[in-house]
Target: Hydro-lyase
Amino acid sequence: MLNPTIPTEFRHLCRVGQLDRPTPGLAPGYVQANLVVLPYDLAFEFLLFCLRNPKPCPILDVTDVGDPEPKLIALGADIRTDLPRYCIFRHGQLIEETTDICEFWRDDLVAFLIGCSFSFETAMLNAGLSVRHIEESKNVPMYKTSIDCLANRTFSSPLVVSMRPLTPQDAIRAVEVTSRFAKAHGSPIHIGNPEQLGITDLSCPDYGDAVTIREGEVPVFWACGVTTQTAIARAKPEFAITHAPGHMFISDWRDEMLAS
Amino acid sequence: MLNPTIPTEFRHLCRVGQLDRPTPGLAPGYVQANLVVLPYDLAFEFLLFCLRNPKPCPILDVTDVGDPEPKLIALGADIRTDLPRYCIFRHGQLIEETTDICEFWRDDLVAFLIGCSFSFETAMLNAGLSVRHIEESKNVPMYKTSIDCLANRTFSSPLVVSMRPLTPQDAIRAVEVTSRFAKAHGSPIHIGNPEQLGITDLSCPDYGDAVTIREGEVPVFWACGVTTQTAIARAKPEFAITHAPGHMFISDWRDEMLAS
Model:
């Protein structure tokens, strides 16, 4: 009986088609990652976009051209089979969701593994901080902002942020705790005033679910990996693959291996 | 009268041909960077090599294809003119040293700015630690090791290290101080035994100058940016440009902006 809380066994269950569900809470303590797969002719420009916008797009690993093994963060893994669910895009349009991308794989594809907020949320919980959407069993609320990422000739995007409400004292502690996790979006990008980010209504997130903001709490905003998806939707590449929302890659790295 | 301790003025002096000397000690407190310029068709593979080997090759900035402006670390700068001296390589062979690369510039070139040890040496000096080669007015001793960097289909290299002798207590303090500067090679890769790195004679460095190791001191080894140069020498690209040894790019970033 395989144990999905161990990354190698989780990935094996995905590979043999026995696991198809969202990954929050699975393999606690291990780094989960967003997946983006693009043709080689866009790989340099996409990598440049990530390097210039490290808070929303922290690069954890990049595969060799045509090679599905992310050697840094999960030696022996195969990104074609080892995630529970994928989205296939052509010219920016979602054409299919699938649990295996072997039939879509090509020799010119490059896979990018990008840090996600689960690592710093675990650190917040360990520090005794509230993570409201987890308390309320919801998806984290995410908002498009009026801040533009640094663009290049192929990729551009508004910065997308996630929001967690905290008291001002806890917000300060959250800055301390999350700043150690630069490869998982790091410290917040804003505390307090959504309008400064061009967000007019916190109760209407662009992605995910609205959460309760209690008396005396302020909204705290972190850069969000969905920014890569909006960049791809804008660039409309001939072909792209991503993880299905919430269905992340689980690496062999421990959260603490990301921390400074 | 322009002041070379201010980065914009230092770069202007280079641009107008009035400054042609090594940069250690110039513009103290500002981040200096190694320069590598390669054709676009090698850019992705080189970036991958750097990302997989972040201790010797910490990426600070990458320019858009054909654009000589490093927009992240020095808005308005022009890497074709703003360094004091450059090396031009064809097929891995040094063919020329020059103070200006305008005549060599091409629309398909990409420039990489890579962190260097000056930032962490300043932090060491500020912490009261000895930096022997500075005390002895020498170049830092550097050694090829028997450790292979993570290679890809185009770039590979032995890890090159620099060495600074310290007492064991100071070596511990040096780990604390330099670990904050991940984008300037970060913490040491080894303390104590050169043979474990395949180094047989500390008095014969592969690059730079030997320095005195006093009674009770141990050699402390940091990953070194010369690793990128050995990778390029091995790959023998049709065309490449680097800074001339010791003649670095000086950015607008303060050393503390690199620190975690």
Observations:
- Residues 88 and 104 of chain B are 9 Å apart (CA to CA).
- Chain B has a mean pLDDT of 95.
